[in-house]
Amino acid sequence: MTTENPQVTAELARFVANTTYDDLPPEVVRETKRSLLNWMGVAIGAAWHESVDILLKLSEEVGGTAKVGIYGRRERVDPLEGALINGMSSHIFDFDDTHLRTVIHPSAPIAPAVLSVAEWKGGSAKDVITAFAVGVEACLRIGNSVYPDHYNVGWHITGTTGVFGSAIATSKMLGHDEQAIRYAIGLAAAQPTGIREMFGTMTKPFHPGKAAMDGLRSALIAGWGFTSSEQGIEATRGFANVLSTKFDPTEITGTLGKEWELLKNAYKPYPCGVVIHPVIDAALGLREKGVTPDNVESITAYVHPLVQELTGKRTPRTGLEGKFSVFHCMGAAIVEGKVGEAEFSDDHVRDEAIIAVRDKTDIAVTEGIREDECRIEAKLTDGSTVEHYVEFASGSIDNPLTDEQLDAKFNDLVIPVLGEQHASDLIQILRNLENEANVKKLIKAATM
Hints:
The protein has helices at residues 8-18, 26-45, 50-62, 79-92, 107-121, 125-146, 149-152, 157-173, 178-189, 203-223, 239-243, 250-253, 277-288, 305-311, 319-322, 326-336, 346-349, 352-358, 403-418, 420-431, 440-446, and strands at residues 68-69, 76-77, 98-99, 265-266, 296-303, 361-365, 374-380, 385-390. By secondary structure, the chain is an alpha+beta fold. It has 2 domains: 8-267 and 404-446, 2-methylcitrate dehydratase PrpD (Orthogonal Bundle); 274-390, CATH 3.30.1330.120. Strand 1 (68-69) and strand 2 form a beta hairpin. Helix 2 (26-45) crosses helix 4 (79-92). It is globular and about 75 Å long.
């Protein structure tokens, strides 16, 4: 725990208020567009999930003004509900972006809030890029300042820091001054969302959606003079010192505007917990070397401790639980030769062939293994051993998805929902977003 530092919130608000599109390095603009492309794909891909239907039923029951679209669907809702539902949808498949240092999924709580404002109140595409970039930067830096202690105690850090990102990004979209941004930050500090007990249920993706909605609401009322503490992050009884036993304010302000955490954002090749990805790569490597369901006797993966902590469900019962089972993922990789969204259906989780291999798998937490690294060993029925080593998982910072791979992932998610033309139009718009006068073409292409 740290002593009070009265400058953190103020310095962050100053950075947000003063940063313009022209201040963004070209690589930040490029990664912002890649983040938005990835985010839009996963949001549309899950648009017809049962949990989205439930929230839209609530919207219909209570009424509201139809001002923004639900991506991948025809319905229109009020801007706050739009942020909630589109944010939740984008996290349902657990296929969204990840800041590997903190396991924050920054786009889910920030992109839907920014786009709700852009569709509702207007703003250029460059405004969207700038707001998203500063919102993500703030979210990730706040996460760095309290990680891992805040996460280890049980908070879902995507929700608890995402509300800051949403409040800051939408404040930027709304043109707030430093005072209003400080109020919005304070309001966000009072609304941490998400506990890890909910992983494997519909409530996990609800967290970033709720953060998106709460952040947008915070920005709106802050702009109308709704007051809050102006030291909401760093005060003795503020967010960081109440919700974490570790707080390093220099992680927020130390290189602010000079180095960009957004450039450390990564995109998933598999729709499940990111710590499983090196294990999936390794299991697929075993399959390529001849390991099959029929000849395997046992498989042991040597992994980082977070694999056991976050994805140690030995006998998942549903597809959602399967996303948090490293054992299911190894079984699916050996049996199916791929681990996509289909492999996380309820039927696949209960598939006898996958269960038979799953029950032969194990993990060994190993000192010195990084989160994006894995060594795996299979013992075969003939007594031989097959090994495979993954130094950097697919989609990690050191082995990132290419633009072509990201486009292919996008198409796999969007074409079944909206068709090839919409998918093609969206890729073209998002790859050249800075050239759009507003988001009208983007929203039209993203909805039915």
